[in-house]
Structures are given as C-alpha cells and as structure tokens.
C-alpha cells in the first residue's frame, strides 16, 4: 500500500463515514440552510420590491415638486401682473384726481380773481361817483351863485324828468 493508493477497507469506511455525515447533514442541516437561503432570497426580493416602490414614490414626489414649482411660478407671474395693473390703475387714478384738483384750484382762483375784480370795480365806481358828485357840487356852486342860472337849471331838470 502506498501513500497515493488507499486500501479497499479504508475507502469503504471513508465512504460510509461520508454517507453518514451526508445523511445527518441532509436530515438536519440542509433544511435549516435551505430555509435560511430561502428566507434570505425572500428578504432580498422584498427589499428589491420596496426599493422599486420607494424609487417610484421618489419619482412621483419629484414630479409633484416640479408641478408645485411650476404652479408657484404661474402664480408669481399672475401676482406680478396683477400688481402692475393695480399700480397702473392707482397711478392713473391719482393723475386724474390731481388734474381734477388742479382744475378745481384754478377755477377757484379764477372765481376769486373775478370777485376781487368786481369788488375793485365797484369800489372804483363808488369813488368815481363820489368824485363826480363832489366835482359837480363844486361846479354847480360856482355856476349857481346867480339866480338866473339856478332857474335855468331847474327848468332843464324838470324837462328831463318829464321826458323819461
């Protein structure tokens, strides 16, 4: 018997020991190992499914966030447009109101100027009338010192009154 060629008995006992160990392993260890491998496979499959679901949720959330951003941009544009319209309307209203106020002030100024003009003219007429009366009085006193002139003046005034 050499080192490289085993004897028949040794082969028999080695085969028998291998078969016994194999049967024990097949009876007790392999079902546990196969169960663990099956559980691990199921866990990996469920993890892959969960990863796919999570990936889909992330994609959905990303779409939703993009939609929200797009809606916010539209709303921002609408708000800016509305603000510009309001600003233009307020400026136009203020301009119209300022023009109306200016027209009112000008009209009030004209009315006051006209009233002052009329007051000045009335005052001037009164003064002119007083001066005329004073001058006429002085002239008449000088002219009416003679009784003939007084008589002629009375007759002229009486004729004028009758004609009117």
Layout of SSEs?
Layout (H helix, E strand, L loop, with lengths): L7 H136 L3 H17 L1
Could you characterize the architecture of this molecule?
The chain is an all-alpha fold and 164 residues long. The protein has one domain. It is built from 2 helices and no strands. The longest helix has 136 residues, at 8-143. It is rod-shaped. The chain starts with 7 loop residues before the first helix and ends with a helix. The mean pLDDT is 88.
Order of helices and strands: HH
Poorly predicted spans:
none
Largest sheet, in brief, is: none
Helix content: over 70%
The gist of it:
This protein is mostly helical and 164 residues long. It has helices at 8-143, 147-163.
Keywords:
164 residues; mainly alpha; 2 helices
